[in-house]
Design goal:
The chain is α/β, with parallel strands linked by helices. It contains 7 helices and 5 strands, in the order ββααβαβααβαα. Helices cover 34% and strands 9% of the residues. The strands form 2 sheets. Strands 3-4-5 form a 3-stranded parallel sheet, with helices on both faces. This is Succinyl-CoA:glutarate-CoA transferase.
Length: 222
């Protein structure tokens, strides 16, 4: 069992706000919510209540992976931080997903895809050359962080298989998105070439951008 199989934390009586992110809806649930929570099991637990925290610890004891995305220190106050879980489940791969990591000047701030995308520089290089920054059509920072997290968890499970010991993984939105901009950073670090928006064009590859095509037919009436 992986606690990652369980649905994320939801407010009692209200639920995850993405349940209402629509239209479209399937029944009373938004397609958005269903798309990222398919095949997951869920239970309602009040972790602020000692009995609820005990349930989480009991689940952790028989789980392989524990994934949480609270602001650093929040779960520790409930007795559910890494050190707490490690005492009862030293085998567990405990993964924390935050906005800005476990340390640093912004570590206590909540993380959001669009904010991390802006801070990382992704929005600075996205959009028309003579226009404003544009957010990508999907939550690229969230998606990239999820993929990096997946790889880290798989590596953690491999280490656990070899050593019998679990570990604490620190993933965050900002670091994940910055990692996706590696060649942008390389251009500046090596050549002091600052990135900019190119629209659909590419700074180093031609042809790359969208071209308008005019087709003249033999019969103008066609």
């Amino acid at each position: 069992l992986a606690l990652g199989d369980m649905q994320g934390a939801e407010l009692a009586g209200v639920g995850d706000d993405t349940r209402s992110w629509g239209p479209p809806f399937v029944g009373r649930e938004s397609v958005y919510f269903l798309s990222v929570n398919r095949n997951k099991k869920s239970i309602a637990v009040n972790m602020k209540n000692p009995k609820g925290a005990k349930i989480i610890r009991e689940l952790a004891a028989v789980s392989d992976v524990f994934v949480e995305n609270y602001v650093p220190g929040k779960l520790a106050k409930m007795g559910l931080g890494y050190e707490d879980i490690n005492k009862i489940a030293p085998h567990i791969v405990y993964c924390s997903i935050t906005g800005y990591g476990q340390t640093g000047p912004k570590f206590q701030q909540a993380g959001y895809d669009s904010v991390a995308a802006a801070v990382s520089g992704l929005l600075h290089i996205t959009g028309p050359e003579d226009g404003e920054p544009i957010r990508p059509g999907v939550a690229m920072t969230d998606l990239a962080t999820g993929l990096y997290t997946y790889g880290a968890i798989m590596a953690g499970l491999l280490q656990r298989y070899k050593t019998g010991k679990g570990l604490h993984i620190d993933c965050n939105l900002l670091s994940s998105q910055v990692a996706c901009l590696t060649y942008i950073a390389g251009n500046y670090l090596n050549c002091q070439k600052e990135a900019k928006r190119w629209g659909t064009a590419h700074a180093s590859i031609v042809p790359y951008q969208i071209y308008g095509i005019y087709i003249r037919t033999a019969n103008p009436s066609c």
